[in-house]
Write a structure and sequence with these properties.
Order of helices and strands: HHHHHH
Helix content: over 70%
Low-confidence stretches: none
Number of helices: 6
Largest sheet: none
Radius of gyration: 15 Å
Strand content: under 5%
Length: about 140
């Protein structure tokens, strides 16, 4: 993989996150699900087009900066409920792409997409509402 592409990968994920925020008007349920989906797709492409010895390093270079940025932003703003899910599930999305690349089993693909939807629409909604209720009591 070319160095210019390799070092621009974290910015690509940040770009898509911002684009999804613009498209969905900042609705984090959609933003989280779509960010996990694009992370899966780009991670799969990284595994497909990288040398085997470099694929893990390239995918970590791609996925780790964004969750760390989110944790920093959410620590400063005090809204941990949003940052924790990004911090946990972006690397999980990367791992699921790796599993799908290695095994090529459709069940991994289906389970990944179901997980992204559940995380975005069920877990995020319930965690954020619970956090909001606890902060108002």
């Amino acid at each position: 993989m070319k160095k210019s592409i390799k070092y621009s990968l974290p910015f690509l994920l940040l770009f898509f996150y911002s684009l999804f925020g613009f498209i969905t008007y900042g609705d984090h349920r959609w933003m989280l699900s779509l960010t996990l989906l694009i992370t899966f797709i780009i991670s799969f492409l990284i595994f497909k087009h990288s040398q085997p010895k470099d694929s893990i390093k390239n995918s970590l270079l791609f996925t780790l900066p964004l969750p760390l940025i989110f944790i920093g932003m959410f620590v400063i703003s005090g809204e941990y409920s949003r940052g924790v899910l990004y911090f946990i599930f972006i690397p999980v999305s990367n791992y699921l792409a790796y599993r799908y690349f290695k095994d090529r089993k459709t069940i991994v693909l289906i389970a990944s997409f179901l997980l992204f939807a559940i995380v975005g629409f069920v877990i995020f909604s319930n965690l954020f509402n619970r956090y909001r209720r606890l902060s108002h009591t």
